[in-house]
# Entry
Amino acid sequence: MQKEKILVIDDEPDMLRGCQKFLEAAGYAVVIAESGEDGLELFETENPDLTIVDLKMPKIDGMAVLQSIMARDQEAIVIVFTGYGTIESAVKAIRAGAFDFVQKPFETDAFLIVIERALKLRRVKMENRALKQMLDTRFRFENIIGNSEAITQVFDLIRKISNTSANILITGESGTGKELVAQCIHANSNRSHKPFVPLNCGGLPENLVESELFGHTKGAFTDAKQNRVGLIEHARGGTFFLDEIGELPMPLQVKFLRVLEDHKIRRLGSNEEIEIDIRLISATNQHIEALIKEGKFREDLFYRINTFEIHLPPLRERQGDIQLLAHHFLNYFAETSEKAAQGISTEAMDVLCEYNWPGNVRELMHVMERAVALSDADTIKLEDLPENLVTQTADNIVSVQTDLPFQEAKDAVIEKFEQTFIDRLLKAHNGNVSRAARQNGMNRHRLQRLISKYAIDVSTYR
# Structure
């Protein structure tokens, strides 16, 4: 794995050597520069993942270096060094685009924590950049998988509201693709050149959610050893996606409502207000109206986040899309894993179409990933699917007595599939056995054996 690269710019040789030594010991690749001029040249040639620059330097000072870097790359991550008594300059640097500042002299452990957070943000930004490059394929509306009436109505609404600044609430069961839709809205909006920043409220402690949302200042709480920029602030100019908003604690609902009303935030431990410009997209798999009646969600916040509501239908209500999605995931996983699978047998597809899909599209994706991994042939067969899919769809396809042994029940389902398969195949090819076998990549003699097994009269299909 390639080491992440850090550029350190400081006119103090001892500071440079000390930083280089402990950063390399921490596993990073380090490039150093003793002046602002040299630092800017190295920024261009070395393409560092993170730049650390001292604010106080001769000729080109740290602020000028910061401004030049941000002008060249708005997504660059920069940390500034500041000396005692120059906090005001550090705050100006933050406003100019710096990720954070570190006051000299510093503790190496605390400094490494700031660096790790900065590089984590860098990774998020790189992922967003990759996402932006995928707009012409994955997130163009015409390439979204699905043509059922239920999903096309959703996409019609997305197309109409993507380029507005209205707040959007996406509802639907887990696994229906709520974050994917949020990404799609962002990618097709006039904010697509700015960050898409997600946060899932589910399962996070209240104090952690608050810090993640708003950031904090040094000393705001016990473990707050450095200033931290919150995710809302990171999303300025772009889209902030708040997943599972129904899990947001009530005290934070009050604070978040104020953010939406005033377009300002305050980091924990700070009295300074920071103006923000975000487009909010929220998502939930809960019934917010029920939470409001139970006193667990503020009604005024609900109206703020819900200018438009997009409800994603569960996969069981998108029967016409199951085959499209299954083939899409088949092609994707076959290509990425270099497997031979190219098609899905009729028996296997019947199971996929009859299954209830409690995990929705996410579950279908995992099933197809598993099937491709298990298959050694060019066609996904019934035996490549999880047994629970076969057994749970049995009652929908054929009447099976519950007191039958498992294998007998499974054999009964397979027999029904084979009969359905032959019936559809012969109908499609007007009873021409040779053509039917050839078009489906099936051995003609095997098809003849199945026809004989079930005493099918081929002449009735002509």
